[in-house]
Amino acid sequence: MPAFYFPELRIIDVAQNDFMGLLPSNYFKNLKGMRDVAPIDKDQSEYIGDCGDCLSKLIYEDSVKVVMKGSKRELVRILKIFTTIDFSCNQFHGPIPDELGELNSLLLLNLSHNSLNGHIPSSLGKLAELESLDLSSNKLQGKIPEQLTKLTFLSILNLSHNELVGHIPEGKQFSTFSNDSYIGNSGLCGFPLTKKCEEPRPPSSQFDEEDDYTAVFEWKFALAGYGCGLVLGLSLGYIAFTIGKPWWLVKKVEKYQQKLVGSCNRSHKQRKTQKPNQRS
Predict the structure, then answer these.
(1) Neighbouring-strand partners of residue 166
(2) Residue 157 above 80 pLDDT?
(3) In the structure, what pLDDT confidence band is assigned to residue 1 with cuts at 50, 70 and 90?
(4) How far apart are CA 88 and CA 110, in angstroms?
(5) Which of 47, 118, 165, 180 could cross-link to 95 by cystine, CB 3.0-4.6 Å?
(6) Is the separation of the CB atoms in 93 and 117 below 8 Å?
(7) 4-41, pLDDT tens digit by residue?
(8) What is the spatial distance between Cα 229 and Cα 219, in angstroms, rounded to a whole number?
(9) 92, 21 contact by CB (below 8 A)
(10) Could you give the CA distance from residue 196 to residue 175 in angstroms, rounded to a whole number?
């Protein structure tokens, strides 16, 4: 099917089939009916099939059954601004296309119960009108994008039974979701789950590393000096024990001692002679 077919589609529901393969990113690029839809005043709501006083209005009215916010509903009349994509309960695999984030007038997105993998694209944070997002029961990995906190109209979120990890984003609509939105993801942590996130250990400073290196460096030299002194002391002790006293060293010490005693005696005599002179 050429990618430019059905550009004005606003409701795509192929749920509960056996479709397989990758999600058709080229089709999403051309869904102009889900982009930049002008808002309509509630008092002047327009429905699909409205044609004024035409005869067909008395015979036929458009209606559809869709899954809205987790429950199946029948829309007897369909607003022209109503947009939804439901690819749930199939066998699609591969990543979620980034192109979905360009459909900024999309209200409901359901890709649950497939085999989609990879990360949740951050481009989904641009779906400013989105009210319900269901990506449950897939094989999605990585962290929940912080950009999803920008979805201020989001009232239903289901990311359960995937392989998501990391801290659950906080703030705005994410403060209203319960544990059911995240169950089956053992790697997730933070509010509203009871599992707390571990704070990352701060990296050691460069100064601490330098101090540790200096301490190790000084200890190496201290141990080396101690080893050298020990070897030298043992060697001298062995020599003195085997050949007797080192007489040359003893003689030098005795001479130095005699000089020291002589100088002390001289200074003592000088003090005695100075005292009588001071009295007279």
Answers:
(1) 188
(2) yes
(3) very low
(4) 6
(5) 118
(6) yes
(7) 568 888 888 899 999 999 998 888 888 888 888 666 55
(8) 15
(9) yes
(10) 16
> CA 206, CA 268: separation in Å to the nearest integer?
62
At 193, list the tokens: 């789950």
Q: Output the DSSP codes for 112-145.
A: -SSEEEEEPPGGGGG-TT--EEE--SSEEEEPPP
Host H or E run for residue 264: helix 247-279
121 prior amide bond cis, ω within 30 = no
Cβ–Cβ < 8 Å for 110, 134: yes
Q: Which two tokens stand for residue 176?
A: 């209203």
Tokens of 274: 């100075």
Residues pairing with 92 in the sheet: 21
For residues 179 and 191, give the distance between their C-alpha atoms in angstroms, rounded to a whole number.
8
CA distance 12 to 24: 12
Give yes or no for a cis peptide into 2 (omega within 30° of 0). Answer: no
Cα distance between residue 42 and residue 44, in whole Å? 5
Query: Do β-strands 64-68 and 139-142 pair in parallel, antiparallel, or remain unpaired?
Result: unpaired
* Confidence band, pLDDT 50/70/90 cuts, at residue 132: very high
| Dihedral angle over CA of 189, 192, 194, 195, nearest 10 | 0
Residues near 87 by Cβ (< 8 Å), separated by ≥ 6? 12, 14, 15, 19, 23, 110, 111, 114
Cβ(144)–Cβ(166) below 8 Å: yes
Opening angle at CA 78, ends 74 and 79, nearest 5: 140
